[in-house]
Task: inverse folding
């Protein structure tokens, strides 16, 4: 036995040595650092540790953003940078290698190499400045660097992060996951059990958010109001990071960003603001290739060779990083994946371009509605709704997407014939074709990840018949969407207090899918099962509200989560009996009863902080996903995240307030700002944004230059 083990160890060491000899030449090269430059930037931390970054130029500010964010979350930033280089697997192992494979499949670096030099000079300066900020932090803190040769990074690395991550807010992970597993591709493009291939988080994450905009005609005091209520993971590569920026070039903005982005991605400046909610139009098409032999496919009477490349995926295994070879393929349609069912090509709106990098920046610099719309017309951001408001009282919903310029005659919801050249669309629909609901007569706009045809109340909606079915506009309705309209219609005049009460509403509408889901459970025949009968009896006492006050709230939260597992991903409805029984069994097992208070079940846990929560999945006080911990409690990890209320008064003066679930120091447990916002978040209270530097002066706890 010992001899056999020794032989295995020798073979393993030999394999590792051979692998390293192959891999090291591929990984040894360092990227070029951005051109040297002296940056004029200062960082002021407010009482909650939020960085306020001041620079002479916008590029100086971007440098400060990179450095400040690294101070608070260098771990995640390294993951993002490694991802853009196809080296995430070298840090996180097999899961990261899946993302690295996708980066190669989409040929992200080739897109950047082709288009980067053509970006405007101010955009490249911004990207380089941000990269230089990360490099400076890495140089000063070498003990925190996780991966050799990861630094320095440059502007192309930062741009690559946008190219890689953007498609995953449009559902690309579902298609890639299904093709990788050899699963069916149903028309709705939502697929069960897809592996985690997305840099935007695990596939089960329900990319959600709520948003409201209220015009002066609807408000009680003539103000314009905007509510940003994003639902993102509370940690990781797409967790929000709050910041405020000011430059002497006129860049003034308060909002939040993701790790790896050199500017805020949503929030407000002095005259306008916006927020985003994920939308799910069908902008991804899949083609079954007609193969003509090894590595060749038929297209319009021609035989064409697939483009094939061997790539190496670094995978951490204990103390070693092993290179794993994989092949990536492409056709004229787009990237190609093969499984037991054949070869499939993928084409999606907004692919193979870098325009989103400039677009986000121009949005933050816009000073009026016309400028902002010109930035939107760049059409670089492939998906997500934009909900807009400004100091002049304009509000609007923009169902933004890179809609493919499809030709009629094909079923784009199914698998397309890969040998028909006319099925391969070129380009995207013009900005004029994008659905927009601007300044509705109702005086309000809402969205909660549902159809754009329900956004402003019965008298002010867009008409479905005005838009081509080839756009693939979604028809989904969430409970949050139904409930938002109900609440806004119930208040002819909306005050600040009313809007806050609406945002924190914890109710389920009987008119929503969730209402029908609960009715199905109450209608079950218990068939002599006491557990089912007892759970039904408790649910009949429920007040349809997750406010933590009723005895059935905990059971109802678990039941709603089981419902949302099938409803949001557009799967077939689950068995209500199984969902009800399993939910009751969880409570009985861990609490000895099926009616514990909701706050004992649903928790905000971070370090030593352990606080009760209310709300639940698909309600406006969103607690969407959680980790089931050893004690049976549910530690929320996804739901209400960065929350910002913005107001422009009658004179056009802006003020805002915000809150996050934890704190600014995302991965720094020893920081006083690791969880210092948690109690406010649980209590549904806010902190000032201190957007005006004059207001900030008395609330600075630390000021320094990087």
Result:
């Amino acid at each position: 036995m010992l001899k056999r083990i020794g032989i295995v160890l020798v073979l393993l060491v030999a394999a590792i040595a051979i692998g390293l000899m192959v891999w090291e030449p591929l990984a040894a090269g360092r990227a070029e650092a951005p051109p040297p430059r002296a940056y004029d930037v200062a960082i002021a931390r407010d009482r909650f540790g939020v960085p306020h970054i001041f620079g002479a130029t916008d590029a100086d500010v971007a440098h400060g953003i990179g450095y400040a964010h690294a101070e608070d979350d260098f771990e995640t930033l390294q993951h993002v940078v490694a991802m853009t280089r196809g080296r995430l697997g070298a840090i996180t192992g097999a899961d990261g290698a899946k993302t690295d494979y996708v980066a190669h499949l989409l040929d992200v670096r080739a897109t950047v190499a082709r288009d980067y030099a053509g970006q405007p000079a101010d955009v490249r300066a911004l990207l380089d400045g941000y990269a230089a900020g990360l490099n400076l932090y890495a140089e000063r803190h070498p003990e925190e660097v996780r991966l050799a040769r990861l630094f320095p990074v440059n502007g192309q690395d930062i741009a690559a992060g946008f190219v890689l991550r953007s498609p995953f807010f449009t559902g690309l992970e579902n298609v890639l996951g299904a093709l990788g597993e050899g699963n069916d591709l149903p028309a709705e493009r939502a697929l069960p059990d897809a592996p985690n291939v997305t840099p935007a988080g695990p596939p089960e994450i329900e990319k959600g958010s709520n948003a409201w905009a209220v015009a002066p005609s609807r408000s009680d005091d003539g103000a314009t109001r905007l509510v940003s209520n994003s639902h993102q993971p509370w940690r990781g590569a797409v967790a929000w990071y709050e910041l405020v920026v000011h430059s002497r070039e006129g860049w003034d903005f308060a909002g939040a960003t993701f790790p790896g982005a050199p500017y805020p991605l949503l929030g407000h400046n002095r005259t306008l603001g916006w927020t985003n909610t994920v939308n799910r139009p069908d902008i991804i098409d899949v083609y079954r290739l007609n193969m003509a032999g090894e590595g060749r496919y038929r297209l319009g009477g021609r035989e064409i060779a697939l483009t094939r490349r061997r790539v190496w995926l670094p995978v951490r295994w204990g103390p070693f990083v092993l290179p794993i070879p994989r092949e990536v393929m492409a056709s004229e349609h787009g990237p190609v994946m093969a499984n037991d069912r054949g070869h499939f090509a993928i084409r999606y709106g907004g692919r193979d371009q870098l325009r989103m990098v400039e677009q986000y920046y121009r949005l933050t610099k816009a000073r009026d509605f016309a400028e902002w719309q010109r930035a939107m017309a760049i059409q670089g951001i492939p998906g997500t709704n934009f909900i807009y408001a400004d100091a002049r009282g304009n509000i609007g919903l923009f169902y933004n997407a890179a809609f493919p310029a499809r030709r009629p005659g094909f079923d784009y919801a199914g698998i397309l014939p890969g040998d028909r050249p006319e099925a391969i669309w070129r380009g995207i629909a013009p900005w004029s074709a994008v659905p927009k609901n601007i300044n509705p007569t109702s005086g309000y706009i809402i969205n909660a990840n549902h159809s754009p045809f329900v956004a402003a109340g019965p008298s002010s909606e867009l008409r479905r018949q005005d838009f081509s079915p080839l756009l693939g506009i979604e028809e989904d309705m969430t409970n949050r969407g139904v409930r938002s309209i109900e609440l806004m219609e119930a208040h002819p005049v909306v005050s600040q207090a009313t809007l806050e009460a609406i945002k924190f509403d914890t109710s389920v509408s009987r008119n929503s899918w969730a209402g029908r889901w609960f009715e199905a459970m109450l209608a079950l025949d218990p068939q002599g099962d006491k557990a089912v009968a007892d759970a039904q009896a408790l649910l009949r006492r429920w007040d349809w509200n997750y406010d933590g006050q009723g005895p059935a709230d905990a059971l109802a939260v678990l039941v709603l989560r089981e419902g949302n597992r099938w409803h949001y991903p557009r799967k077939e409805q689950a068995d209500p009996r199984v969902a009800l029984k399993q939910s009751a069994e969880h409570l009985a097992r861990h609490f000895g009863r099926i009616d514990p208070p909701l706050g004992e079940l649903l928790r905000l846990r971070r370090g030593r902080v352990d606080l009760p929560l209310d709300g639940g999945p698909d309600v406006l006080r969103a607690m969407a996903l959680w980790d089931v911990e050893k004690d049976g409690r549910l530690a929320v990890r996804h739901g209400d995240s960065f929350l910002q209320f913005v107001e422009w008064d009658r004179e056009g003066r802006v003020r805002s307030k915000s809150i996050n679930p934890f704190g600014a120091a995302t991965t720094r447990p020893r920081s006083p700002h690791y969880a210092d916002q948690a109690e406010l978040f649980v209590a549904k209270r806010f902190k000032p944004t201190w957007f005006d530097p004059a207001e900030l002066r008395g609330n600075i706890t630390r000021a320094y230059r990087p």
About this structure: Residues 1-29, 185-197, 200-205 have pLDDT under 50 and may be disordered. The first helix runs from residue 2 to 27. The first strand starts at residue 41 and ends at 46. The chain has 19 helices and 28 strands.
